[in-house]
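Input record, target 12 of the design panel.
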């Protein structure tokens, strides 16, 4: 029997070394975690004739496989990213480092967020209907006003339809914004009216921005009242959410909206949030795409594009401070 020890940064890499050196018939006899965090395996294979030189006794993988992920780990902890999402991100980053030797935390994190979180373009006109949903007070009406403002700047024609038959104040505020922007404001009190008004105005405008009543996602009767508005149109369905919300609460809320059709998330009050673990967790767990966020109370300059690079900088502020 041929015995041979192997040392690697983790178990999966050690097993890969065993397979490459001794083949798939090798048997693992012993595993041991070394003081420096690496893993040592002792493997064996039946072989009639065997001899080895001292150089072959312990085979180590290249040093690039040992990556200090503490900076990223500490940042994800600080922001409150839920454990399952954090573990997946760190595992993928360690693997990416092993494959290409990259050691810059910001570049590794940005690349991972680019590959594993979806993104959308808020003003994409391939789907003219943009329907906003969310809990009461999540900033839907303000988000719509900001999007309408950006459309105006880019000379994209738009109108606003409100279906909120619960809060008259919200309609008054949104209608006031629409007047300032010289953007048509229309009210649709039920799903059939929404369908007809949306279809009519899609012939006139590039974008139709739709506000819906804010609901408590944990009250079935409120969610059921929202469903007809969501199901009546083929629209980009965008959930607004306070960027600073606790990650576990955020995921629970987002799962409800995801189940009734939400595809994207629009974080609001990003300028007031010091921890964005809720947004990262929702994007990862619920697979809601990111594209834009509210960054101030200003309607004119209160929206910013979100992509992998900007997310990575928000998560790793140390790099920003050092000008990296």
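The sequence produced for target 12 reads:
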């Amino acid at each position: 029997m041929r015995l041979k020890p192997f040392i690697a940064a983790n178990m999966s890499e050690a097993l890969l070394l065993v397979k490459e050196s001794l083949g798939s018939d090798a048997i693992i006899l012993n595993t041991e975690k070394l003081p420096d965090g690496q893993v040592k395996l002792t493997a064996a294979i039946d072989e009639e004739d065997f001899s080895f030189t001292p150089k072959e006794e312990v085979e180590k993988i290249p040093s690039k496989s040992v990556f200090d992920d503490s900076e990223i780990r500490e940042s994800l902890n600080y922001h409150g990213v839920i454990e399952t999402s954090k573990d997946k991100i760190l595992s993928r980053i360690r693997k990416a480092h092993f494959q290409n030797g990259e050691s810059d935390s910001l570049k590794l994190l940005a690349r991972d967020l680019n590959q594993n979180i979806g993104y959308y373009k808020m003003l994409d006109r391939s789907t003219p209907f943009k329907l906003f949903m969310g809990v009461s007070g999540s900033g839907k009406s303000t988000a719509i006003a900001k999007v309408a403002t950006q459309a105006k700047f880019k000379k994209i024609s738009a109108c606003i339809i409100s279906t909120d038959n619960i809060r008259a104040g919200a309609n008054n505020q949104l209608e006031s914004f629409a007047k300032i922007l010289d953007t048509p404001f229309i009210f649709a009190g039920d799903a059939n009216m929404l369908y007809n008004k949306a279809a009519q105005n899609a012939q006139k405008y590039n974008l139709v921005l739709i506000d819906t009543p804010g609901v408590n996602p944990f009250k079935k009767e409120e969610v059921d009242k929202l469903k007809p508005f969501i199901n009546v149109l083929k629209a980009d369905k965008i959930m607004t959410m306070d960027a600073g919300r606790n990650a576990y609460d955020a995921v629970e809320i987002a799962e409800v909206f995801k189940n009734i059709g939400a595809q994207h998330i629009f974080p609001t009050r990003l300028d007031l949030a010091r921890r964005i673990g809720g947004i990262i967790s929702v994007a990862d767990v619920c697979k809601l795409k990111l594209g834009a966020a509210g960054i101030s109370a200003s309607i004119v300059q209160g929206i910013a594009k979100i992509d992998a690079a900007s997310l990575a900088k928000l998560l790793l502020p140390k790099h920003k401070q050092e000008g990296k």
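The first helix runs from residue 11 to 22.
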